[in-house]
Amino acid sequence: MTSKETPECARCGKCCLADMIAYVTKEDMNRWIREGRTDIIHIIENEQAVWLGDHFVSSRTGRPIYGCPFLEMPDDKFSCSIHETRPGVCRNYAPGSSEICPLWKED
Ligand code: SF4
Predict the structure, then answer these.
(1) Distance 103 CA to ligand 1 centre (A)
(2) pTM more than 0.90
(3) CA 28 to ligand 1 center in whole angstroms
(4) What are the residue boundaries of the structural domains of the chain, listed by start?
């Protein structure tokens, strides 16, 4: 049996196109409070995403939400503007672990 190593992220941003705000946990919020990250909390609280069956919208504005508000493209690749304190759902996502990632390989 061979062990499957986690590949290095290609920074294509595809996994960030899901609206991560919907997956923010109480633990994430408590960490941001401890860290004084009111900038993050303000964005999370104002987005108020709701799932409409096939996409997210902001329940506050009705605006469609297409991806994570912390996704940036500083060069020719995507990056996370809150990488050091990103939510658990993002930290736990291993590159190549699902079919949305171009690094996905079927066993
Ligand atoms: S989909 Fe895969 S390669 Fe693209 S950013 Fe996410 S983890 Fe990285």
Answers:
(1) 7
(2) no
(3) 21
(4) 14-91
